[in-house]
Amino acid sequence: MARTLAPGQRSRVLTVDVDSGETTVIHESTEILYEAPNWSLDGTALFINGDGHLFRLDLDGGDPVRINFGDLPELNNDHVLDPDGEHVFVSANDWHIYRAPLAGGEPVRITNDNEDGRLHFLHGVSPDGRELAYIGLTADDNGVWAPPNVFVIPAVGGPDAQLTDDEFPDDGSEYSPDGEWIYFNSERARTRPGHAQLFRMRRDGSEATQLTSDERVNWFPHPSPDGSRLAYVSFPPGTEGHPADRDVIVRICNADGTGVRDLRRLLGGQGTMNVPSWSPDGERIAFVEYPINESEPA
């Protein structure tokens, strides 16, 4: 089931200039809970999830316009544009990943029916468009979920390859602009349950390196188009997972994890910035906040 707004809550789609900190409200809704904005390749529109569908939101005004994908199952909030600029990869609530035309039309399923009953959650597309990085989640015969891991699969379909395999949750896998690295968040260095930090590894899963190390819980690293910076969502200490409606901070840092800077404090978390969120020119980031009863972020 698609997420919905709480009584008195709204979803507010914004962009922020990463150098000046100036924010711009692009759209507000008291009816649909919008999530996970990313940008058209020409920088003129955002693509956002809401009510189980994908919408195009032009930056020069107007309401979000739903994209018709025919019989595609209801979507969750994981969607990433194909580098060809004409297609989008989306995760559906049948737990598979599809490729579909951005102009609308019938999708093609990419992921496999694996023997382990794996659920697929898309997060990254390689810069050459040849490979997808996703998070795989499986349960044992008793319904106990194993920690999620990073997998890759050819963008046209084919055999999966597992890149991480440990007892700690990994999530938010996204490629660097040069295609050499995959950034992700992980609890592998945790000091308490839920204490995720940012990491990167080679495209084959080797050379995993920790980038952040602080008291907060850091999720969804998004490399800038030139690869010099990361944007991410920082949850309060003690948070487990990436829940909704928390007092979070949208942060930016250098690609090596240094130079952390706050861009916006807001009520959000899940849905705020789950997918690649940088404008093509690297000047702005798109995100969503969810104020309740007209409260404003501190």
UniProtKB/TrEMBL annotation:
It holds the Pfam family PD40. InterPro entries: 6-blade_b-propeller_TolB-like (IPR011042), WD40 (IPR011659). PANTHER family: PROTEIN TOLB, PROTEIN TOLB HOMOLOG. Belongs to the TolB family. This is PD40 domain-containing protein. It comes from Microbacterium aoyamense.
